[in-house]
Task: inverse folding
């Protein structure tokens, strides 16, 4: 991703349309339901939040919803941040992002120099006005 003319164009368009300078991608996890229970010892791990059995997949796309990267195969019970930690993007960020480039994601992600997550609401604590506005703007992207 880093240094590529394509990512520079994506960053310009995201900045112009959504106001996020140097943002080159959006990341989110998704579940793919399985038709049957896996025939493995770890089958209970595939019991996801939304489906009886599923695979958890990390998808990274651009602002036009074109998939630029994905990692599939984690059990459905795997948290999005755990799956993200298994990606080459997380393991070798300098190979994928220029020093000022980053991706955005929901509050499941940990903040990093190349990851800007939504603000997480703490129990019994409302988000501040600025944090709410940021999250709203991020969700539009």
Result:
């Amino acid at each position: 991703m880093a240094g590529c003319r394509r990512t520079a164009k994506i960053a310009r368009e995201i900045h112009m349309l959504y106001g996020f300078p140097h943002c080159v991608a959006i990341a989110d996890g998704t579940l793919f339901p399985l038709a049957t229970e896996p025939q493995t010892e770890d089958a209970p791990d595939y019991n996801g939040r939304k489906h009886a059995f599923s695979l958890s997949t990390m998808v990274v796309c651009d602002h036009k919803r074109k998939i630029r990267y994905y990692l599939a195969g984690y059990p459905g019970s795997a948290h999005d941040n755990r799956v993200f930690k298994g990606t080459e993007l997380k393991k070798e960020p300098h190979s994928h992002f220029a020093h000022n480039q980053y991706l955005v994601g929901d509050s499941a992600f940990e903040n990093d120099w190349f990851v800007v997550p939504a603000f997480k609401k703490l129990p019994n604590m409302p988000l501040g006005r600025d944090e709410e506005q940021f999250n709203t703007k991020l969700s539009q992207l």
About this structure: The chain has one domain: 5-140. Residues 5-140 form one domain. The longest helix spans residues 5-18.
